[in-house]
Specification:
The structure holds 2 protein chains of 2 kinds. Chain A is an all-alpha fold. Chain A is built from 10 helices and 2 strands. In chain A, a hairpin with a 2-residue loop joins strand 1 and strand 2. By secondary structure, chain B is an alpha/beta fold. Classes of the chains: A mainly alpha, B alpha/beta.
Chain lengths: 253, 310
Protein backbone atom coordinates (compact mmCIF):
# COMPACT_ATOMS: atom_id res chain seq x y z
CA UNK A 1 0.00 0.00 0.00
CA UNK A 2 1.23 3.50 -0.91
CA UNK A 3 0.96 5.05 2.56
CA UNK A 4 2.92 8.15 1.49
CA UNK A 5 0.51 8.62 -1.41
CA UNK A 6 -2.55 8.45 0.85
CA UNK A 7 -0.88 10.83 3.29
CA UNK A 8 0.00 13.28 0.53
CA UNK A 9 -3.60 13.49 -0.69
CA UNK A 10 -5.00 13.61 2.84
CA UNK A 11 -2.70 16.41 4.03
CA UNK A 12 -3.17 18.30 0.76
CA UNK A 13 -6.93 18.29 1.33
CA UNK A 14 -6.61 19.17 5.01
CA UNK A 15 -4.29 22.05 4.09
CA UNK A 16 -6.98 23.32 1.72
CA UNK A 17 -9.42 23.34 4.64
CA UNK A 18 -7.00 25.27 6.80
CA UNK A 19 -6.56 27.84 4.03
CA UNK A 20 -10.33 28.25 3.80
CA UNK A 21 -11.17 27.98 7.49
CA UNK A 22 -13.91 30.63 7.36
CA UNK A 23 -15.72 28.87 4.55
CA UNK A 24 -15.04 25.26 5.61
CA UNK A 25 -15.61 25.40 9.34
CA UNK A 26 -16.68 28.79 10.70
CA UNK A 27 -19.47 29.41 8.19
CA UNK A 28 -21.35 26.08 8.66
CA UNK A 29 -20.97 26.31 12.45
CA UNK A 30 -22.34 29.85 12.39
CA UNK A 31 -25.28 29.09 10.09
CA UNK A 32 -26.25 26.01 12.14
CA UNK A 33 -26.02 28.09 15.31
CA UNK A 34 -28.60 30.45 13.83
CA UNK A 35 -31.04 27.54 13.69
CA UNK A 36 -30.36 26.83 17.36
CA UNK A 37 -30.99 30.47 18.25
CA UNK A 38 -34.15 30.87 16.14
CA UNK A 39 -35.79 27.42 16.39
CA UNK A 40 -34.17 26.20 19.58
CA UNK A 41 -34.11 29.20 21.90
CA UNK A 42 -36.57 31.77 20.47
CA UNK A 43 -39.38 29.61 19.01
CA UNK A 44 -38.52 26.35 20.81
CA UNK A 45 -39.05 27.84 24.25
CA UNK A 46 -42.72 28.44 23.36
CA UNK A 47 -43.25 24.92 21.98
CA UNK A 48 -44.06 21.70 23.82
CA UNK A 49 -41.94 18.56 23.96
CA UNK A 50 -41.74 15.86 21.28
CA UNK A 51 -41.40 12.29 22.56
CA UNK A 52 -40.54 13.81 25.92
CA UNK A 53 -37.67 15.90 24.53
CA UNK A 54 -37.72 19.72 24.56
CA UNK A 55 -38.01 21.15 21.00
CA UNK A 56 -34.66 22.96 21.14
CA UNK A 57 -32.89 19.72 22.04
CA UNK A 58 -35.05 17.63 19.67
CA UNK A 59 -33.83 19.44 16.55
CA UNK A 60 -30.12 19.19 17.41
CA UNK A 61 -29.49 15.73 15.84
CA UNK A 62 -31.36 16.73 12.69
CA UNK A 63 -29.45 19.99 12.35
CA UNK A 64 -26.12 18.30 12.93
CA UNK A 65 -27.12 15.74 10.31
CA UNK A 66 -28.09 18.53 7.88
CA UNK A 67 -24.65 20.12 8.27
CA UNK A 68 -22.89 16.75 8.08
CA UNK A 69 -24.61 15.69 4.87
CA UNK A 70 -24.16 18.97 3.04
CA UNK A 71 -20.56 19.54 4.18
CA UNK A 72 -19.45 15.95 3.55
CA UNK A 73 -20.82 16.12 0.02
CA UNK A 74 -19.48 19.60 -0.59
CA UNK A 75 -15.97 18.86 0.73
CA UNK A 76 -15.51 15.55 -1.05
CA UNK A 77 -17.08 16.63 -4.33
CA UNK A 78 -15.00 19.80 -4.55
CA UNK A 79 -11.85 17.91 -3.52
CA UNK A 80 -11.95 15.66 -6.59
CA UNK A 81 -13.79 18.04 -8.95
CA UNK A 82 -11.27 20.85 -8.70
CA UNK A 83 -8.24 18.79 -9.84
CA UNK A 84 -10.36 17.62 -12.78
CA UNK A 85 -11.34 21.21 -13.53
CA UNK A 86 -7.82 22.63 -13.20
CA UNK A 87 -6.13 19.68 -14.92
CA UNK A 88 -3.97 18.71 -11.93
CA UNK A 89 -5.72 15.33 -11.81
CA UNK A 90 -3.08 14.15 -14.30
CA UNK A 91 -0.65 13.79 -11.42
CA UNK A 92 -2.94 11.55 -9.35
CA UNK A 93 -3.77 9.42 -12.39
CA UNK A 94 -0.11 8.98 -13.33
CA UNK A 95 1.03 8.19 -9.78
CA UNK A 96 1.46 4.68 -8.36
CA UNK A 97 -1.66 4.98 -6.22
CA UNK A 98 -4.55 2.55 -6.39
CA UNK A 99 -8.21 3.65 -6.59
CA UNK A 100 -8.63 2.58 -2.96
CA UNK A 101 -5.72 4.79 -1.90
CA UNK A 102 -7.08 7.75 -3.86
CA UNK A 103 -10.48 7.33 -2.18
CA UNK A 104 -8.88 6.91 1.26
CA UNK A 105 -6.99 10.18 0.78
CA UNK A 106 -9.82 12.33 -0.57
CA UNK A 107 -12.75 10.78 1.32
CA UNK A 108 -10.71 10.37 4.50
CA UNK A 109 -9.95 14.09 4.53
CA UNK A 110 -13.53 15.10 3.71
CA UNK A 111 -14.92 12.78 6.42
CA UNK A 112 -12.40 14.08 8.97
CA UNK A 113 -13.52 17.65 8.28
CA UNK A 114 -17.17 16.62 8.68
CA UNK A 115 -16.55 14.84 11.97
CA UNK A 116 -14.67 17.88 13.33
CA UNK A 117 -17.45 20.12 12.09
CA UNK A 118 -20.12 17.91 13.70
CA UNK A 119 -18.32 18.00 17.05
CA UNK A 120 -17.89 21.79 16.83
CA UNK A 121 -21.59 22.21 16.08
CA UNK A 122 -22.49 20.04 19.07
CA UNK A 123 -20.20 22.09 21.32
CA UNK A 124 -21.72 25.34 19.97
CA UNK A 125 -25.26 23.98 20.41
CA UNK A 126 -24.56 23.44 24.12
CA UNK A 127 -24.18 27.20 24.47
CA UNK A 128 -27.79 27.77 23.36
CA UNK A 129 -29.62 24.55 24.22
CA UNK A 130 -29.42 22.08 27.09
CA UNK A 131 -29.18 18.52 25.75
CA UNK A 132 -27.80 15.14 26.75
CA UNK A 133 -26.27 12.21 24.86
CA UNK A 134 -27.64 8.88 26.06
CA UNK A 135 -25.46 6.65 23.86
CA UNK A 136 -22.24 8.61 23.17
CA UNK A 137 -20.47 5.68 21.47
CA UNK A 138 -23.37 5.16 19.08
CA UNK A 139 -23.58 8.90 18.54
CA UNK A 140 -19.92 8.96 17.43
CA UNK A 141 -20.46 5.80 15.36
CA UNK A 142 -23.37 7.43 13.48
CA UNK A 143 -21.42 10.68 13.14
CA UNK A 144 -18.40 8.93 11.63
CA UNK A 145 -20.41 6.49 9.50
CA UNK A 146 -22.58 9.26 8.05
CA UNK A 147 -19.54 11.45 7.37
CA UNK A 148 -17.80 8.63 5.50
CA UNK A 149 -20.92 7.60 3.59
CA UNK A 150 -21.76 11.09 2.39
CA UNK A 151 -18.15 11.93 1.66
CA UNK A 152 -18.15 8.88 -0.62
CA UNK A 153 -21.37 10.17 -2.17
CA UNK A 154 -19.76 13.60 -2.60
CA UNK A 155 -16.76 11.97 -4.26
CA UNK A 156 -19.11 10.35 -6.79
CA UNK A 157 -20.79 13.71 -7.46
CA UNK A 158 -17.37 15.32 -7.92
CA UNK A 159 -16.46 12.69 -10.52
CA UNK A 160 -19.84 12.98 -12.26
CA UNK A 161 -19.97 16.79 -12.35
CA UNK A 162 -18.42 18.48 -15.35
CA UNK A 163 -19.31 22.00 -14.29
CA UNK A 164 -19.85 23.96 -11.07
CA UNK A 165 -23.62 23.91 -11.44
CA UNK A 166 -23.77 20.12 -11.35
CA UNK A 167 -21.57 20.21 -8.28
CA UNK A 168 -24.25 22.18 -6.45
CA UNK A 169 -27.40 20.66 -7.87
CA UNK A 170 -27.51 17.42 -5.82
CA UNK A 171 -26.74 19.00 -2.41
CA UNK A 172 -29.16 21.89 -2.95
CA UNK A 173 -31.94 20.26 -4.94
CA UNK A 174 -31.92 16.78 -3.41
CA UNK A 175 -30.10 16.50 -0.08
CA UNK A 176 -31.36 19.69 1.60
CA UNK A 177 -35.06 19.03 0.80
CA UNK A 178 -34.71 15.38 1.86
CA UNK A 179 -33.16 16.47 5.17
CA UNK A 180 -35.83 19.10 5.85
CA UNK A 181 -38.53 16.54 5.02
CA UNK A 182 -36.69 13.71 6.80
CA UNK A 183 -37.66 14.66 10.33
CA UNK A 184 -34.95 17.20 11.14
CA UNK A 185 -37.53 19.54 12.70
CA UNK A 186 -40.30 17.09 13.62
CA UNK A 187 -41.06 13.49 14.42
CA UNK A 188 -42.50 11.67 11.42
CA UNK A 189 -45.19 10.27 13.75
CA UNK A 190 -46.62 13.81 13.69
CA UNK A 191 -47.36 13.50 9.97
CA UNK A 192 -50.79 12.40 8.70
CA UNK A 193 -51.10 9.44 6.35
CA UNK A 194 -50.12 8.94 3.57
CA UNK A 195 -47.18 11.29 4.24
CA UNK A 196 -46.01 9.22 7.20
CA UNK A 197 -45.66 6.12 5.01
CA UNK A 198 -44.25 8.06 2.06
CA UNK A 199 -41.60 9.62 4.30
CA UNK A 200 -40.18 6.15 4.92
CA UNK A 201 -38.93 6.21 1.31
CA UNK A 202 -36.69 9.12 2.25
CA UNK A 203 -33.31 7.60 3.21
CA UNK A 204 -32.39 10.61 5.35
CA UNK A 205 -35.21 9.68 7.78
CA UNK A 206 -33.19 6.65 8.88
CA UNK A 207 -30.02 8.68 9.42
CA UNK A 208 -31.73 11.35 11.52
CA UNK A 209 -33.79 8.81 13.44
CA UNK A 210 -30.75 6.71 14.32
CA UNK A 211 -28.72 9.76 15.28
CA UNK A 212 -31.55 11.10 17.46
CA UNK A 213 -31.87 7.71 19.18
CA UNK A 214 -28.17 7.96 20.15
CA UNK A 215 -28.98 11.28 21.86
CA UNK A 216 -32.32 10.67 23.55
CA UNK A 217 -33.16 6.99 23.16
CA UNK A 218 -36.21 7.87 21.03
CA UNK A 219 -36.49 7.07 17.32
CA UNK A 220 -39.00 7.20 14.48
CA UNK A 221 -37.78 3.88 13.11
CA UNK A 222 -36.03 0.91 14.67
CA UNK A 223 -32.36 1.60 15.39
CA UNK A 224 -31.29 -1.61 13.62
CA UNK A 225 -33.14 -0.49 10.48
CA UNK A 226 -31.44 2.93 10.69
CA UNK A 227 -28.02 1.32 10.99
CA UNK A 228 -28.84 -1.14 8.22
CA UNK A 229 -29.95 1.64 5.84
CA UNK A 230 -26.80 3.64 6.56
CA UNK A 231 -24.70 0.57 5.76
CA UNK A 232 -26.67 -0.07 2.57
CA UNK A 233 -26.01 3.49 1.42
CA UNK A 234 -22.34 3.17 2.34
CA UNK A 235 -21.97 -0.07 0.39
CA UNK A 236 -23.86 1.39 -2.59
CA UNK A 237 -21.47 4.34 -2.72
CA UNK A 238 -18.44 2.02 -2.45
CA UNK A 239 -19.77 -0.12 -5.29
CA UNK A 240 -20.35 2.98 -7.45
CA UNK A 241 -16.79 4.17 -6.82
CA UNK A 242 -15.39 0.73 -7.60
CA UNK A 243 -17.27 0.89 -10.93
CA UNK A 244 -16.00 4.42 -11.63
CA UNK A 245 -12.38 3.37 -11.28
CA UNK A 246 -12.89 0.11 -13.09
CA UNK A 247 -14.36 1.86 -16.14
CA UNK A 248 -12.45 5.14 -15.80
CA UNK A 249 -15.80 6.96 -15.95
CA UNK A 250 -15.14 10.70 -16.39
CA UNK A 251 -11.62 10.48 -15.00
CA UNK A 252 -9.61 8.42 -17.48
CA UNK A 253 -10.20 8.62 -21.23
CA UNK B 1 21.80 -0.28 -25.03
CA UNK B 2 18.74 -2.05 -23.62
CA UNK B 3 15.27 -0.66 -24.01
CA UNK B 4 13.63 0.98 -21.00
CA UNK B 5 10.22 1.46 -22.63
CA UNK B 6 8.69 -0.98 -25.05
CA UNK B 7 5.48 -0.13 -26.87
CA UNK B 8 3.93 -3.03 -28.78
CA UNK B 9 0.94 -2.83 -31.10
CA UNK B 10 -0.55 0.08 -29.18
CA UNK B 11 -3.91 1.34 -30.39
CA UNK B 12 -6.30 3.96 -29.05
CA UNK B 13 -9.78 4.60 -30.36
CA UNK B 14 -12.02 7.02 -28.47
CA UNK B 15 -15.72 6.45 -27.87
CA UNK B 16 -16.44 8.99 -30.60
CA UNK B 17 -14.80 6.57 -33.05
CA UNK B 18 -11.73 8.75 -33.53
CA UNK B 19 -8.58 6.65 -33.74
CA UNK B 20 -5.68 8.48 -32.11
CA UNK B 21 -3.09 5.68 -32.30
CA UNK B 22 -2.76 2.78 -34.73
CA UNK B 23 -0.54 -0.19 -34.03
CA UNK B 24 2.29 1.85 -32.54
CA UNK B 25 5.53 -0.04 -31.94
CA UNK B 26 8.37 1.81 -30.31
CA UNK B 27 11.42 1.03 -28.20
CA UNK B 28 13.06 3.71 -26.10
CA UNK B 29 16.66 2.98 -25.17
CA UNK B 30 17.93 3.41 -21.64
CA UNK B 31 19.73 6.71 -21.13
CA UNK B 32 18.82 8.33 -24.44
CA UNK B 33 17.03 11.55 -25.30
CA UNK B 34 14.25 10.63 -27.67
CA UNK B 35 12.31 13.31 -29.51
CA UNK B 36 8.85 12.56 -30.82
CA UNK B 37 7.92 14.91 -33.62
CA UNK B 38 4.57 15.30 -35.25
CA UNK B 39 2.00 17.87 -36.31
CA UNK B 40 -0.91 18.85 -34.07
CA UNK B 41 -3.26 15.93 -33.42
CA UNK B 42 -0.68 13.37 -34.51
CA UNK B 43 -1.08 11.34 -31.30
CA UNK B 44 2.02 12.45 -29.37
CA UNK B 45 0.20 13.43 -26.18
CA UNK B 46 -2.12 10.40 -26.39
CA UNK B 47 0.90 8.11 -26.57
CA UNK B 48 2.50 9.77 -23.54
CA UNK B 49 -0.80 9.76 -21.64
CA UNK B 50 -1.18 6.02 -22.13
CA UNK B 51 2.38 5.24 -21.06
CA UNK B 52 1.96 7.40 -17.94
CA UNK B 53 -1.43 5.91 -17.01
CA UNK B 54 -3.63 8.95 -17.66
CA UNK B 55 -5.37 7.32 -20.57
CA UNK B 56 -6.22 3.66 -21.20
CA UNK B 57 -5.14 1.87 -24.37
CA UNK B 58 -7.67 0.14 -26.61
CA UNK B 59 -5.15 -2.49 -27.66
CA UNK B 60 -1.50 -3.38 -27.33
CA UNK B 61 0.96 -3.39 -24.49
CA UNK B 62 3.50 -1.07 -22.91
CA UNK B 63 6.26 -1.94 -20.49
CA UNK B 64 8.34 0.59 -18.57
CA UNK B 65 11.52 -0.68 -17.01
CA UNK B 66 10.21 -4.19 -17.76
CA UNK B 67 6.94 -3.64 -15.89
CA UNK B 68 3.59 -3.78 -17.64
CA UNK B 69 1.93 -0.37 -17.26
CA UNK B 70 -1.46 -1.97 -16.52
CA UNK B 71 -0.68 -5.11 -14.52
CA UNK B 72 2.36 -3.75 -12.67
CA UNK B 73 1.25 -0.13 -12.72
CA UNK B 74 2.75 0.72 -9.34
CA UNK B 75 6.25 -0.39 -10.30
CA UNK B 76 5.99 1.06 -13.80
CA UNK B 77 4.66 4.46 -12.73
CA UNK B 78 7.11 4.86 -9.86
CA UNK B 79 9.89 4.98 -12.49
CA UNK B 80 8.22 7.66 -14.60
CA UNK B 81 8.00 11.43 -14.25
CA UNK B 82 5.77 13.55 -16.47
CA UNK B 83 5.86 17.23 -17.33
CA UNK B 84 2.57 17.78 -19.13
CA UNK B 85 1.98 20.25 -21.91
CA UNK B 86 -0.57 22.28 -19.95
CA UNK B 87 0.57 24.35 -16.99
CA UNK B 88 -1.86 22.69 -14.60
CA UNK B 89 -1.04 23.85 -11.10
CA UNK B 90 -2.73 24.31 -7.76
CA UNK B 91 -2.94 28.09 -7.72
CA UNK B 92 -3.01 28.47 -3.93
CA UNK B 93 -0.34 25.93 -3.04
CA UNK B 94 3.22 27.01 -2.30
CA UNK B 95 6.07 25.77 -4.47
CA UNK B 96 7.49 23.80 -1.53
CA UNK B 97 4.15 22.17 -0.69
CA UNK B 98 3.27 21.21 -4.24
CA UNK B 99 6.67 19.63 -4.98
CA UNK B 100 6.60 17.68 -1.70
CA UNK B 101 3.03 16.60 -2.48
CA UNK B 102 4.25 15.09 -5.75
CA UNK B 103 7.02 13.17 -4.00
CA UNK B 104 4.58 11.71 -1.47
CA UNK B 105 2.05 10.85 -4.15
CA UNK B 106 4.67 8.72 -5.88
CA UNK B 107 5.26 6.77 -2.69
CA UNK B 108 8.55 8.31 -1.61
CA UNK B 109 9.38 9.20 1.98
CA UNK B 110 9.87 12.93 2.65
CA UNK B 111 13.37 14.13 1.78
CA UNK B 112 13.67 17.89 2.36
CA UNK B 113 17.36 17.90 1.43
CA UNK B 114 16.67 16.41 -1.99
CA UNK B 115 13.76 18.79 -2.64
CA UNK B 116 15.92 21.74 -1.61
CA UNK B 117 18.66 20.62 -3.98
CA UNK B 118 16.11 20.21 -6.77
CA UNK B 119 14.61 23.65 -6.23
CA UNK B 120 18.06 25.21 -6.14
CA UNK B 121 19.03 23.48 -9.41
CA UNK B 122 15.90 24.88 -11.04
CA UNK B 123 16.45 28.37 -9.59
CA UNK B 124 13.27 28.03 -7.55
CA UNK B 125 14.68 28.09 -4.04
CA UNK B 126 13.97 31.79 -3.58
CA UNK B 127 10.36 31.15 -4.55
CA UNK B 128 9.80 28.13 -2.32
CA UNK B 129 7.19 29.88 -0.20
CA UNK B 130 5.48 31.67 -3.09
CA UNK B 131 2.03 30.54 -4.13
CA UNK B 132 1.81 29.08 -7.61
CA UNK B 133 -0.49 31.87 -8.79
CA UNK B 134 2.24 34.42 -8.05
CA UNK B 135 4.71 32.81 -10.47
CA UNK B 136 5.40 33.67 -14.09
CA UNK B 137 4.73 31.12 -16.84
CA UNK B 138 8.41 30.20 -17.02
CA UNK B 139 8.64 29.71 -13.27
CA UNK B 140 5.51 27.55 -13.31
CA UNK B 141 7.12 25.43 -16.00
CA UNK B 142 10.16 24.95 -13.76
CA UNK B 143 7.88 23.91 -10.89
CA UNK B 144 6.21 21.36 -13.16
CA UNK B 145 9.66 19.94 -13.88
CA UNK B 146 10.51 19.92 -10.16
CA UNK B 147 7.27 18.05 -9.45
CA UNK B 148 8.06 15.50 -12.14
CA UNK B 149 11.57 14.97 -10.73
CA UNK B 150 10.54 15.00 -7.07
CA UNK B 151 10.38 11.20 -6.84
CA UNK B 152 13.70 10.70 -8.62
CA UNK B 153 12.31 8.98 -11.74
CA UNK B 154 14.44 7.06 -14.20
CA UNK B 155 12.27 8.04 -17.15
CA UNK B 156 11.12 11.60 -17.78
CA UNK B 157 8.45 12.61 -20.27
CA UNK B 158 8.50 16.22 -21.38
CA UNK B 159 5.41 17.08 -23.40
CA UNK B 160 6.16 20.28 -25.28
CA UNK B 161 8.48 21.45 -22.48
CA UNK B 162 9.44 24.78 -23.93
CA UNK B 163 6.10 25.87 -25.39
CA UNK B 164 5.63 29.53 -24.53
CA UNK B 165 9.01 29.75 -22.84
CA UNK B 166 11.50 32.52 -23.63
CA UNK B 167 14.78 31.79 -25.36
CA UNK B 168 16.90 32.08 -22.20
CA UNK B 169 14.75 29.66 -20.22
CA UNK B 170 14.64 27.31 -23.19
CA UNK B 171 18.44 27.20 -23.23
CA UNK B 172 18.44 26.61 -19.45
CA UNK B 173 16.04 23.73 -19.88
CA UNK B 174 18.13 22.16 -22.59
CA UNK B 175 21.10 22.32 -20.23
CA UNK B 176 19.04 20.79 -17.46
CA UNK B 177 17.83 17.98 -19.71
CA UNK B 178 21.38 17.20 -20.75
CA UNK B 179 22.38 17.18 -17.08
CA UNK B 180 19.61 14.71 -16.29
CA UNK B 181 20.73 12.45 -19.10
CA UNK B 182 24.25 12.51 -17.67
CA UNK B 183 22.73 11.23 -14.43
CA UNK B 184 21.21 8.31 -16.29
CA UNK B 185 17.66 9.62 -16.75
CA UNK B 186 16.01 8.58 -20.00
CA UNK B 187 14.18 11.49 -21.59
CA UNK B 188 11.33 11.42 -24.05
CA UNK B 189 10.22 14.78 -25.32
CA UNK B 190 7.61 15.90 -27.76
CA UNK B 191 8.10 19.20 -29.39
CA UNK B 192 6.96 21.50 -32.14
CA UNK B 193 10.36 23.16 -32.13
CA UNK B 194 12.43 21.17 -34.56
CA UNK B 195 15.54 23.01 -33.41
CA UNK B 196 14.89 21.57 -29.97
CA UNK B 197 15.00 18.03 -31.31
CA UNK B 198 17.96 18.90 -33.50
CA UNK B 199 19.81 20.40 -30.55
CA UNK B 200 19.12 17.69 -27.99
CA UNK B 201 17.85 14.39 -29.30
CA UNK B 202 19.84 11.22 -29.82
CA UNK B 203 17.03 9.63 -31.76
CA UNK B 204 13.95 10.99 -33.43
CA UNK B 205 10.57 9.45 -34.05
CA UNK B 206 8.05 11.00 -36.39
CA UNK B 207 4.37 10.36 -35.76
CA UNK B 208 1.50 11.35 -37.98
CA UNK B 209 -2.19 10.47 -37.76
CA UNK B 210 -1.48 8.01 -34.97
CA UNK B 211 1.20 6.08 -36.86
CA UNK B 212 4.93 6.09 -36.33
CA UNK B 213 6.41 7.00 -39.69
CA UNK B 214 10.01 6.44 -38.74
CA UNK B 215 12.45 6.18 -35.89
CA UNK B 216 16.06 7.07 -36.63
CA UNK B 217 19.26 8.25 -35.04
CA UNK B 218 19.13 12.02 -35.44
CA UNK B 219 22.33 12.28 -37.45
CA UNK B 220 21.44 9.26 -39.57
CA UNK B 221 18.08 10.84 -40.33
CA UNK B 222 19.68 14.07 -41.35
CA UNK B 223 22.29 12.27 -43.42
CA UNK B 224 19.70 10.04 -44.99
CA UNK B 225 17.09 12.56 -45.87
CA UNK B 226 18.99 15.80 -45.98
CA UNK B 227 19.83 17.64 -49.18
CA UNK B 228 22.96 19.77 -49.35
CA UNK B 229 24.03 22.87 -51.21
CA UNK B 230 27.54 23.75 -52.25
CA UNK B 231 27.98 27.50 -52.90
CA UNK B 232 30.90 28.55 -55.07
CA UNK B 233 32.16 32.15 -55.46
CA UNK B 234 34.20 32.32 -58.66
CA UNK B 235 37.32 34.39 -59.29
CA UNK B 236 35.94 35.51 -62.68
CA UNK B 237 32.29 35.59 -63.75
CA UNK B 238 31.10 33.13 -66.41
CA UNK B 239 29.13 34.30 -69.39
CA UNK B 240 27.59 30.86 -69.63
CA UNK B 241 27.91 27.51 -67.84
CA UNK B 242 30.18 25.20 -69.88
CA UNK B 243 28.55 22.11 -71.39
CA UNK B 244 30.95 19.89 -69.41
CA UNK B 245 29.12 20.99 -66.22
CA UNK B 246 25.61 20.35 -67.53
CA UNK B 247 25.19 17.12 -65.53
CA UNK B 248 25.42 19.11 -62.24
CA UNK B 249 22.45 21.36 -63.02
CA UNK B 250 24.20 24.37 -61.49
CA UNK B 251 22.39 27.59 -60.69
CA UNK B 252 24.21 30.76 -61.68
CA UNK B 253 23.71 34.04 -59.80
CA UNK B 254 25.36 37.46 -59.45
CA UNK B 255 25.99 37.73 -63.20
CA UNK B 256 27.89 34.50 -63.34
CA UNK B 257 30.20 35.06 -60.37
CA UNK B 258 28.31 32.61 -58.11
CA UNK B 259 27.34 28.96 -58.68
CA UNK B 260 25.13 26.79 -56.48
CA UNK B 261 25.22 23.00 -56.64
CA UNK B 262 22.31 21.21 -54.92
CA UNK B 263 22.66 17.50 -54.30
CA UNK B 264 21.09 14.73 -52.30
CA UNK B 265 23.35 13.51 -49.52
CA UNK B 266 21.93 10.01 -50.00
CA UNK B 267 23.46 9.94 -53.49
CA UNK B 268 26.43 12.09 -52.62
CA UNK B 269 29.02 9.62 -53.89
CA UNK B 270 31.93 11.39 -55.54
CA UNK B 271 29.92 14.07 -57.34
CA UNK B 272 31.54 16.94 -55.44
CA UNK B 273 35.03 15.67 -56.24
CA UNK B 274 34.03 15.27 -59.90
CA UNK B 275 32.62 18.81 -59.96
CA UNK B 276 35.90 20.23 -58.63
CA UNK B 277 37.89 18.21 -61.15
CA UNK B 278 35.83 19.49 -64.10
CA UNK B 279 35.96 23.08 -62.79
CA UNK B 280 39.75 22.75 -62.65
CA UNK B 281 39.90 21.24 -66.15
CA UNK B 282 37.78 24.14 -67.45
CA UNK B 283 40.13 26.65 -65.80
CA UNK B 284 37.38 28.05 -63.56
CA UNK B 285 38.92 29.47 -60.40
CA UNK B 286 37.18 29.44 -57.00
CA UNK B 287 37.56 32.46 -54.70
CA UNK B 288 35.49 31.10 -51.81
CA UNK B 289 33.05 28.32 -51.00
CA UNK B 290 30.67 27.17 -48.34
CA UNK B 291 28.11 24.40 -47.93
CA UNK B 292 24.78 24.12 -46.15
CA UNK B 293 22.41 21.24 -45.43
CA UNK B 294 18.73 20.75 -44.72
CA UNK B 295 17.59 21.46 -41.23
CA UNK B 296 15.57 18.86 -39.39
CA UNK B 297 12.56 21.09 -39.91
CA UNK B 298 12.90 20.90 -43.68
CA UNK B 299 13.33 17.14 -43.43
CA UNK B 300 10.29 16.84 -41.19
CA UNK B 301 8.10 18.98 -43.45
CA UNK B 302 9.14 17.05 -46.55
CA UNK B 303 8.60 13.74 -44.79
CA UNK B 304 5.13 14.59 -43.58
CA UNK B 305 4.13 15.96 -46.98
CA UNK B 306 5.56 12.90 -48.69
CA UNK B 307 3.43 10.64 -46.49
CA UNK B 308 0.34 12.78 -47.06
CA UNK B 309 0.76 12.47 -50.81
CA UNK B 310 0.89 8.64 -50.59
Amino acid sequence: MNIYGIRAIYYFEMARTMRTLMQSIVSPVLSTSLYFIVFGTAIGSRMGTIDGVGYGAFIIPGLVMLALLSQSISNASFGIFFPKFSGTIYEVLSAPVSPLEIVLGYVGAAATKSVVLGILILITARVFVDYSIEHPVWMMAFLILTSITFSLFGFIIGIWADDFQKLQVIPLMVITPLTFLGGAFYSISMLPEPWQTLTLFNPVVYLISGFRWAFYGVADVNIAVSLGMTMVFLLTCMAAIWWIFRTGYRIRT
Amino acid sequence: MSHIIKVSGLGKTYKSGFTALRDVNLDIQKGEIFALLGPNGAGKTTLISIICGISSPTSGQVTAHGFDIVKDYRLARSKIGLVPQELSTDAFESVWATVNFSRGLFGKAPNPEYIEQLLRQLSLWDKKNAQMRELSGGMKRRVMIAKALSHEPEILFLDEPTAGVDVELRRDMWEMVRGLREHGVTIILTTHYIEEAEEMADRIGVIRQGEILLVEEKQALMDKLGSKQLNLHLTSPLTEIPAALAEFNLQSELEGSFLRYSYDSRQNGDSVARLFRILSEQGIGIRDLNSSESSLEEIFVSLVHEETAK
